[in-house]
Amino acid sequence: MSDHQPNLLLDLKNLVTRFYTDDGVVHAVNGVSYALEEGGTLGVVGESGCGKSVHALSMMRLIPSPPGKIEAGEVWFDGRDLLKVTEADMHHVRGAEIAMVFQDPMTSLNPVYTVGFQIMEALKLHQGMDEAQARERAGELLAMVGIPEAFQRLDDYPHQFSGGMRQRAMIAMALSCNPQLLIADEPTTALDVTIQAQIVELVKRLQEQLGMAVMWITHDLGVVAGLASKVNVMYAGYIVERGDVGDIYGQPRHPYTIGLLGSLPRLDEAPGTKLISIPGLPPDLIDLPPGCPFAARCTYTIDRCLEQMPPLEETDGEDHTVACWRWKHVAGRTS
Amino acid sequence: MSAERAPLVRVRHLKKYFPITRGVIIQRHIGDIKAVDGVSFDIYKGETLGLVGETGSGKTTVGRTMLQLYDPTDGQVIFDNADLVNLGGSDLRHMRRRMQMIFQDPYASLNPRMTVGGIVGEPLEVHGVARGRAKRERVQELLRVVGLNPYFVNRYPHEFSGGQRQRIGIARALALNPDLIICDEPISSLDVSIQAQVVNLLEELQDQLGLTYLFIAHDLSMVRHISDRMAVMYLGKIVELADRDEIYLNPLHPYTQALMSAVPVPDPEVEEKRQRIILEGDLPSPANPPQGCNFNSRCPVAIETCFEVEPEFIEVRPGHFCACHLVQPERQPVD
User: Fold this and answer.
1) Helix, strand, or coil (residue B197)
2) Pick from A235, A230, A324, A322: nearest CA to A283
3) Record: contact B196-A262, CB cut-off 8 A
4) pLDDT, tens digit, 9 for 90 and up, residues A141-181
5) Chain B residue with Cα closest to A47
6) CA A192 to CA A198: how far, in whole Å?
7) In terms of C-beta density within 10 A (0-12 exposed, 13-18 middle, 19 or more buried), how is residue B14 classed?
8) Most buried of A78, A156, A325, B141, CB within 10 angstroms?
């Protein structure tokens, strides 16, 4: 029934998530398939509404239902399909095996409980620790993520922490049960660049120490360049390109990826560089056009693009796939 | 850049303190938030001056205080030989025509109950420039200039996307043919592919209309892309100001150096080789800045003097200003 490979940590097959709203059916995730090996680092990039967060929440079965519904797909994690396990098993997976860090550290911490209490909660629940053990471990975790005077700070409330410290506390909480996979959903978007650099370095160091896999969801192509080994580029609920970080940035093959990289100013750019903007807007997910969702904004569009969605196919690069009918033509024009 | 170019705006020792009060009925003044604490710079005609800094560094307050939207605590803003700080009533109102602002949030800065025509036409009416048919024609012309369909005049803001709304905001700013436009984070709430569209539009308009910009943003790569010169702010003060390439290739202030190194570059090869300076800690509170140099609490190279004496903002070499005890002015070679 499935050609799932057991040595992979995470194996997504044709995940489809839709939201049934009053305005119509939102096609948020439209058949996403990829795999992540143990200890690997994956960057998922795309603009708002491309389905990068929804696909991760679907994996964790955290889609509010209704209106959301996971319509199809398999999420193989550590030998079982997460979409088929019981809710009780899922409770164990969330937090203990897959942990998540969200964008806004202020709204994801509960303001009426101390930071220490919130970290200890997971330890007591998932690891069966008693109060004293949990407190000891929570202090160690805060120290591990670089919060000074960690044991004293356990009794602080979230508002007594700065933005960067809150995100560190969230990471401490996420790592409290030694998860095999950490999903970081735009963890640095609300932070300043010097604080972002601190958090990025922290996650890199912790990944080396603890050996977990990390999925880094972001709209910032710069952050991913220095972090990930594999990159998925998403657009309108599809993965449009996937490959090694070097190939995605060095030889992008999808016109959207090329456009996205061209529209980004670089700190080290030469004077007089003009940004290449992508014309138009992303499509309405309620009313997705047939065919390739990028066709309306693409300069290489042919009739076929308007009629048929291209599948992800292998390109010239190793393990580099792209969903474009015309990638060969595009490659000839751009490199 | 020629040195003879005339400054359009000269800002001298500009200060803006927000009082902190305690008590409900009888309010006692117990301190000040020093949002802007003595900044001086010039903006030359036709150039773009970029102002970067982290959250809470005072960059937005500089923009608003320059336009007298906030009453300055101290200092001068000399716009074309008139000191705006001492100007009042109709004189100030008259000057306001020549300086406009584009705001960060295109959702909050457009009145949802007004049509696009009403929004863009309002400045024309307020300043008595045009009414009736002339106003309508001017509004349609402005919409065309910013790349919107002139038939949109009767639509409401909610019918537009973020990028289109920002274009409406730009059309409104252009309505009175200003000399100076203060762009306060005009693109930070937009998606990457839309950001490039808006930035390219701003650049085109500058070429066509000879506009002068003060471009305020936290995105260093974008500021470097659009600016001719850049100023870096930290905790209410400008720590460094220089030509865009000079400041990138040759940053002198330790904060600028750390900021530059923290910005991720969308290129995995570059990222691998880069040395990062990771700053410790967070921005101190502007209500209680450190004694001496206000960067001393995070500075990796601080010496004793830095904790006692505030460094002066000096011209280190022609056109390159810096406020650091460790940076000495270069002697000009005598020939």
Assistant:
1) helix
2) A235
3) yes
4) 998 888 888 888 999 999 888 888 888 898 888 888 889 99
5) B191
6) 10
7) buried
8) A325
